[in-house]
Specification:
222 residues, alpha+beta, 6 helices, extended
């Protein structure tokens, strides 16, 4: 039986996923965000829906799909844009980007300032009680009959959780940036308690937001 021939000029059937490679194994060219996380305006795509390739395209005007140069792994750490392979980065409302970038600049300056680090280290030691001790969980260790199991006792920190660790750094950074009022959101309540605590220490007004259901459910924490 003779096979039916395709009509001349008929486009090949494309993949069901618009982001999947085409039959030739090519991805549609994508625009990359700039350093501020914004997409640059692009020229109109061609009739096939492809943007002009920045690297050398093939005869069909497509970019070949590239294998990832680094795996999605916490072991490799994020790149300078905050990405772990294909994932990560900052996804916030555009109106917040100037504030996010201001915070990034302030943090990058502060983390390399010995005076900032010395003050943070002093507060961790003499205010929150770090480093918190390791506790050998003898009963669990015996029950498991294998490796020794230790607990990191961060609940012994001031305010009863690990939340004070980052809140101390945040309040020092806020003061360094000249901020005069602190706001926070909390779910279980412990972060809100830690924020209120450091604000009280440094005499900064704060407003902590918490959902009505969470307030009722987490009453022991607040």
């Amino acid at each position: 039986m003779a096979s039916k021939s395709k009509k001349s000029g008929s486009p090949p059937a494309g993949p069901s996923d618009p982001d999947a490679p085409d039959a030739g194994g090519h991805l549609k060219a994508q625009a990359a965000p700039d350093a501020g996380g914004h997409l640059k305006a692009q020229a109109a795509p061609d009739a096939g829906g492809h943007l002009k390739a920045q690297a050398a395209p093939d005869a069909g005007g497509h970019l070949k799909a590239q294998a990832m140069t680094s795996p999605n792994s916490y072991r490799t750490g994020p790149d300078d844009k905050g990405f772990f392979g294909l994932f990560g980065g900052r996804f916030v409302a555009e109106t917040l980007m100037p504030l996010i970038l201001e915070l990034e600049r302030a943090y990058n300056t502060a983390k390399d300032d010995p005076k900032f680090q010395a003050e943070l280290s002093y507060l961790h030691t003499h205010y929150s009680g770090r480093p918190s001790p390791l506790y050998l969980a003898e009963n669990i260790t015996k029950d498991l009959g294998g490796a020794k199991v230790y607990f990191k006792r961060d609940e012994l920190n001031h305010t009863g959780s690990h939340k004070i660790n980052n809140c101390l750094g945040q309040i020092l950074l806020a003061r360094r940036m000249g901020k005069t009022r602190i706001i926070a959101e909390t779910g279980a309540g412990q972060h809100g308690v830690a924020v209120a605590t450091v604000c009280a220490k440094f005499k900064l007004p704060c407003h902590v937001y918490m959902g009505a259901t969470d307030i009722e459910r987490q009453a022991p924490n607040v």
